[in-house]
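User: Reviewer 2 asked us to show a designed sequence for the structure in our supplementary figure. I'm pasting the structure tokens here. Could you produce the per-position amino acids so we can include them in the response letter?
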């Protein structure tokens, strides 16, 4: 019995080492995200889910989701039926976007997008008025094309990471507005590939600007919208 217990003790590192490593990664990621977005950035009163406990739960869910993805039959690149957007940003430019998050994410960097079989130059940044859009791994993105070429007639495009688990809410609302004959930005469900890596499903939404009025055969003029307390993430 003693020899068995001794053997179990000597080989216990096989179990404890992975637990310690995973626990250390989870703790580091949780504290780092909490410090970045809750302590240093100091978001507004709508940031209750940025407390350390909520962030810790998010990091656990993130690890579990990765395990589910690796253990499932999902194959990156498999046809999901959604339109695919291929976006390219160099590693130095991604590092620039994330050098002092979230403020650094709101400044455009150079990137590229695959259009008509060729890579076209675009400007890219993160977007969003609240931390729901940029405090997590799946960040909302704004793309601005050149005046010389457009993406389906659009120059300023938002790729929005849904705020809630109900990912179709905003998409269906915009579609309903179109069906009712109301003025609303164009929208679509797309799958984003960033530097060839599948980043999941996004909601493509046209930016509300003068071009939106022109695309709807309306005379350009002033556009008014309601505002929230924001952190320059528009």
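Assistant: Here is a per-position design you can include in the supplement:
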């Amino acid at each position: 019995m003693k020899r068995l217990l001794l053997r179990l003790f000597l080989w216990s590192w096989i179990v404890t080492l992975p637990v310690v490593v995973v626990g250390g990664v989870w703790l580091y990621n949780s504290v780092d995200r909490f410090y970045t977005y809750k302590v240093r950035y100091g978001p507004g009163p709508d940031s209750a889910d940025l407390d350390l406990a909520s962030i810790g739960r998010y990091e656990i869910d993130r690890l579990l989701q990765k395990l589910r993805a690796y253990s499932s039959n999902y194959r990156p690149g498999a046809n999901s039926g959604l339109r695919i957007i291929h976006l390219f940003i160099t590693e130095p430019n991604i590092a620039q976007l994330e050098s002092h998050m979230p403020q650094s994410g709101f400044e455009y960097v150079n990137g590229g997008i695959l259009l008509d079989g060729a890579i076209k130059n675009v400007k890219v940044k993160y977007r969003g008025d609240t931390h729901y859009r940029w405090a997590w791994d799946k960040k909302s993105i704004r793309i601005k094309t050149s005046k010389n070429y457009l993406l389906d007639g659009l120059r300023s495009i938002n790729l929005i990471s849904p705020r809630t688990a109900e990912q179709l809410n905003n998409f269906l609302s915009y579609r309903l507005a179109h069906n009712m004959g109301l003025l609303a930005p164009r929208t679509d469900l797309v799958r984003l590939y960033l530097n060839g890596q599948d980043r999941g499903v996004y909601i493509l939404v046209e930016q509300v600007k003068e071009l939106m009025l022109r695309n709807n055969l309306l005379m350009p003029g002033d556009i008014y919208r309601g505002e929230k307390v924001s952190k320059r993430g528009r």
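For the response letter, you might also mention the following. The first strand starts at residue 83 and ends at 88. Helices lie at 2-10, 13-40, 52-71, 91-97, 131-134, 169-179, 210-215.
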